[in-house]
Design brief:
The protein is of the alpha/beta class and about 375 residues long. The protein has 2 domains: about 170 residues, Nucleotidyltransferase, domain 5, CATH 3.30.420; about 120 residues, ATPase, nucleotide binding domain (Nucleotidyltransferase, domain 5). It contains 13 helices and 10 strands. The strands form 2 sheets. The chain has a 5-stranded mixed sheet, sandwiched between helices. A hairpin with a 4-residue loop joins strand 1 and strand 2. The C terminus is likely disordered. Bound molecules: 5'-O-[(R)-(carboxyoxy)(hydroxy)phosphoryl]adenosine and zinc ion (ZN). Zinc ion (ZN) binds next to helix 4.
Length: about 375
């Protein structure tokens, strides 16, 4: 018998709902993005985010049911993101999930958003018949997180193929998340919001060896990250080059007039700017890949998983594939739509917990700082 789970996600600035069968077949996945609302602030404004989730949650869930052609009354369970995330945003999805569970008399499953990102990789790998070997090292890299987890798997007792995963935290960012650095650098250079996709495209047209940022030195855990230094380095670089200010103003004007295309912004960018962008991306990508693969070797894993908005980056994917292969790891990413926040990954993560009989009761509350896993034991520490 097929188990169909409705997933609901509202932890940050995406209102999303999806229906997934048996944790691996996506019957529908609807994402209402709020980028147009947050764009003029260059980042997510929490109050505006929760207000927009309120407007979107009902139509988005209805649309997920319509696209899957399944009445909500026919789903087997409801999986909802409990955290981590913005409390006001989380509460909207969580409350609606509870209301639906009560009204439709369905089991409610609480999901950790970060576990969702791990399942985004597995969901598509399973449906492609290419399940990663465990243990795996998973990099979750987005606008809100840069985290490394060692992930182990065990069969659940359900006999339906659902995998129970356990997580040990290996490292994380000490300051900015990688996506946050992309967004802040894009803001300094007037490239629009979010910054990642534009920088990704423009970086291909610059010389990545032009500006040397040097490697970020981190004391203590070698698998921690830090991106605020490189962001400040870009700021100082720009301060020392007043000749770039006119083109920044010109791009700012284009953005204010509604320009969004990366090609148009590229046409307004000098070689110096394109070189700076390419060098920034190279430094961030090299750092992410280097630390993740070093952690993979240190913690004796078989596969590398990378998920989250920044894992959609073209250069990051290429470098992981290339370097991973060289060092004997198989590397897995979600497709680009499943790299960024979505509810299919929440429904997939809920499937394992549902299979094991886990149920949340209606006293469930949002957990803005919901952690995933405890510190691993390693000779490296
Ligand atoms: O996972 P996500 O949709 O939301 C969060 O949970 O944060 O990630 C959004 C972040 C933004 O910072 C955005 O600039 C970045 O992911 N991003 C990218 C790319 N696409 C999105 N960063 C680098 N390259 C990309 N292609
Ligand atoms: Zn996320």
């Amino acid at each position: 018998m097929t188990t169909r789970i409705l997933g609901i996600e509202s932890s940050c600035d995406e209102t999303a709902a999806a229906i997934v069968a048996d944790g691996k077949q996506i019957l529908s996945s609807v994402v209402a993005s709020q980028v147009d609302i947050h764009r003029k602030y260059g980042g997510v404004v929490p109050e505006l985010a929760s207000r927009e989730h309120l407007r979107q949650i009902v139509p988005v869930v209805r649309e997920a049911a319509a696209q899957a052609n399944i009445p909500l009354a026919d789903v087997d369970a409801i999986g909802v993101t409990q955290g981590p995330g913005l409390v006001g945003s989380l509460l909207v999805g969580l409350t609606y999930g509870k209301v639906l569970a009560l009204a439709l008399n369905k089991p409610l499953i609480a999901v950790n958003h970060l576990e969702g990102h791990v399942h985004a990789v597995l969901l598509e790998a399973h449906s492609a018949g290419r399940t990663p070997k465990f243990p795996a090292m998973c990099l979750i890299v987005s606008g809100g997180h840069t985290l490394l987890y060692r992930v182990e798997s065990a069969e659940t007792h359900s006999g339906n193929g659902a995998l129970r995963l356990s997580y040990s935290r290996v490292g994380g960012t000490r300051d900015d998340a990688a996506g946050e650095a992309y967004d802040k650098v894009a803001k300094m250079l007037a490239l629009g919001y979010p910054g990642g996709p534009v920088i990704d495209k423009l970086a291909a047209h610059g010389n990545a060896a032009a500006v040397r940022f040097g490697t970020t030195k981190i004391r203590g855990n070698p698998y921690d990250f830090s991106f605020s230094g490189i962001k400040t380095a870009v700021l100082y670089y720009l301060r020392k080059r007043p000749e770039l200010h006119a083109e920044i103003q010109e791009r700012q004007r284009a953005l204010s007039n509604g320009e969004r295309s990366a090609d148009a912004l590229r046409a307004l960018s000098s070689t110096t700017t394109l070189d700076l962008i390419a060098s920034f991306q190279r430094a961030v990508v090299d750092d992410l890949v280097k630390r993740t693969l070093a952690a993979g070797e240190q913690f004796a894993v078989q596969s590398i998983l990378a998920s989250g908005g920044v894992a959609a980056n073209r250069e990051l994917r290429e470098k992981f594939e290339e370097e991973g292969k060289r060092r004997g790891f198989e590397v897995f990413f979600p497709s680009r739509p499943l790299s960024t926040d979505n509810a299919a990954m929440i429904a997939a993560a809920a499937f394992t917990r549902f299979s094991e009989g886990e149920r949340a009761d209606l006293s469930l509350n949002a957990m803005p700082n919901f952690p995933l896993g405890a510190a691993p034991q390693s000779s490296g520490h």
